[in-house]
């Protein structure tokens, strides 16, 4: 298996981009990533996207490659719900690791603010089980609310403790020029925000976002394209039942745990080695169960730990210096690529927001309510 | 790069499957493929699908893996319009070739007959360019009709010559138990069928189809799972502009040519070595330009060749002994997987329809109007 390096990254600001098309948004991220490698032409492109069907467009790999001047290269789109960016990174990794391609561009792109919000929320619910869940009218927030209530009750976790996650994320995100929500908030902001699906309130949830991020992958032969190549030391994906009612456990993300264990084993690293991580905090409860499933906290303890000040910049591990999904935003199919781009910049020491000294980084991108999870280990 | 073998295949009959869910349809193909390898559990699943959004379901890899009893393995969906099955095969290949996974299941699944036909036709048009083509109301058949008229005029090809393709396909498909349209037709059937988009008539076009196909891929270590492993000797994908108006040429499928050239080079084979091929005859015109782009016929000569009896069972190469998209049917995201499964069975000598002696086989799956093309070379 050939070693795989990230030698270029590019991002657009996350936010509302109704004035540009999806292909233009992707092209901005691609252009930024290509700039970092002297515009060395890639041989393949992997596009991560979930909901371009909302704007009646599929065949995104051909569309985006052509618009970026890359006609004739290999191209495909991959999807794993909100974890589409993560599986795109995995697919790009496989292309280079196999030896079939030497220079691969992975781009995640999503436009959620193009359509009326009810249509978008309906689209996001396609990540759940249409036959066994959506038929009951449950929303994606509703499914996460079930877990939040169960978790709070089982582990005696206070609502205020969970809410402090959002406060910490906004503290980080306010310094990230790519973030969507760049304002500090207080505990009261969260507790007094409108109920979305009890007990989840607006500020427990990430925003709807547009955005695109790209990474350029290559092998040992081409890593000189960058002075600061970052090694993908491990990568693993695992799937779980989309339907919550058939899960082994409501408060453990089985696929998150498997994916993290496998990626760490592949990288010959322990969770204790991780200096910085970007995890998938779609809701405050998702942050808690993700941190526990990865192994950054014991069962039921994550919210207690962050309430005591853990995971802040300077701590090991620092979690979500970007501001996470909560503040940076969650352009669904792009999120997993943003995470890798951000952690690469942390390891290179050039992330323009909260920067922490780091040699080992981890990203975890979650699709559905933990049904498609990809973990990536990055090493300077 | 590790060698990759196909050691199991499974298919459902192509046709109308409104009585079963998408996950059940996929499970039937998976179960058939797993039967061939003694139910050896795969480590990863790749799902090829284009239009599950029509039934409000994404996250198919998790959904299908879980339903097939494969919770916890790696899973992702890939899409390249009507070429989704082809890119799924490529992705499965990369998984095994990289060494990251040893046993990989690739399943293509599509249900096009679940929704009213106008909705489905609209969905299929997502393969075209929403901003630059669909805005004018052109359908997918309409785009192919432009090419057909141009081709007939440029190369002085008669309408009757093109129509004979469909007659040949139905002759083959009538013997294929998995085919959707198992009736012989005459030249008059094609010429007198209703106009879809002039000059394309109903019998120039493939039907709308439901279906699922699966292949099981593995490496040298595990090829003993089958007594008759078939080597993937070459595989390559190329993309072109989805928007016809910006093509280099209307009557050559640039991506088809590139993809075939690259796959043949990788396999160290010439197009003359190919004994049997399954190509993407979505329309009679698609058959002609595909045969020419791959190199099975000179420019403008394909329809003349098949009018003279070439490409029939027994000829080298025999093209589409399955009946092709025209008669076997075209369950979009599954088609590229059907093609590989069929050619594998030709090479093993156990295809239950028209069977030709063959040592080298080729498949080519086309997304959009030639905008996402994957070619696979298979060897006994």
Structure notes:
The structure is a homodimer of 380-residue chains. By secondary structure, chain A is α/β, with parallel strands linked by helices. Chain A folds into two domains: 5-116 and 209-225, Thiolase/Chalcone synthase (Peroxisomal Thiolase, Chain A, domain 1), CATH 3.40.47.10; 127-207 and 233-379, Peroxisomal Thiolase, Chain A, domain 1 (3-Layer(aba) Sandwich), CATH 3.40.47.10. Chain A has twelve helices and twelve strands. Chain A has helices at residues 22-36, 60-67, 84-98, 117-124, 140-155, 159-173, 187-191, 254-267, 284-294, 302-307, 324-327, 332-348; strands at residues 5-11, 44-48, 74-79, 103-111, 195-197, 200-201, 210-218, 230-239, 276-278, 318-319, 360-367, 372-379. In chain A, the strands form two sheets. Chain A has a ten-stranded mixed β-sheet, with helices on both faces. In chain A, a hairpin with a 2-residue loop joins strand 5 (195-197) and strand 6. In chain A, helix 3 (84-98) packs across helix 12 (332-348) and helix 6 packs across helix 9. Chain A is globular. The model of chain A has no long low-confidence stretch (mean pLDDT 97). The interface between A and B is large, with 69 and 68 residues.
The domain tally of chain A reads 2
User: Helices and strands of chain A: which structural class?
Assistant: alpha/beta
CATH class category label of the largest domain in chain A: Alpha Beta
Q: Tell me about the biggest sheet of chain A? A: 10 strands, mixed
Proportion of residues in extended strands of chain A = 15-25%
Strand order of the largest sheet of chain A: 3-2-4-7-1-8-12-11-9-10
Note the overall shape of chain A.
globular
Largest interface: A-B, 69 and 68 residues
Do you know the CATH architecture of the largest domain in chain A? Answer: 3-Layer(aba) Sandwich
Span between N and C termini of chain A?
19 Å
Please give the share of residues in helix of chain A. Answer: 25-40%
Oligomer: homodimer
CATH topology of the largest domain in chain A: Peroxisomal Thiolase, Chain A, domain 1
| CATH homologous superfamily placement of the largest domain in chain A | Thiolase/Chalcone synthase
What is the β-strand count of chain A?
A: 12
- Average pLDDT taken over every residue of chain A: 97
Q: Rg of chain A to the nearest angstrom?
A: 19 Å
Tally of alpha and pi helices of chain A: 12
SSE ordering of chain A:
EHEHEHEHHHHEEEEHEHHEHHEE
GO molecular function (chains A, B): acyltransferase activity, transferring groups other than amino-acyl groups
InterPro entries (chains A, B): Thiolase, Thiolase-like, Thiolase_C_2, Thiolase_N
Domain Thiolase N-terminal (chains A, B): 4-221
Organism (chains A, B): Zestosphaera tikiterensis
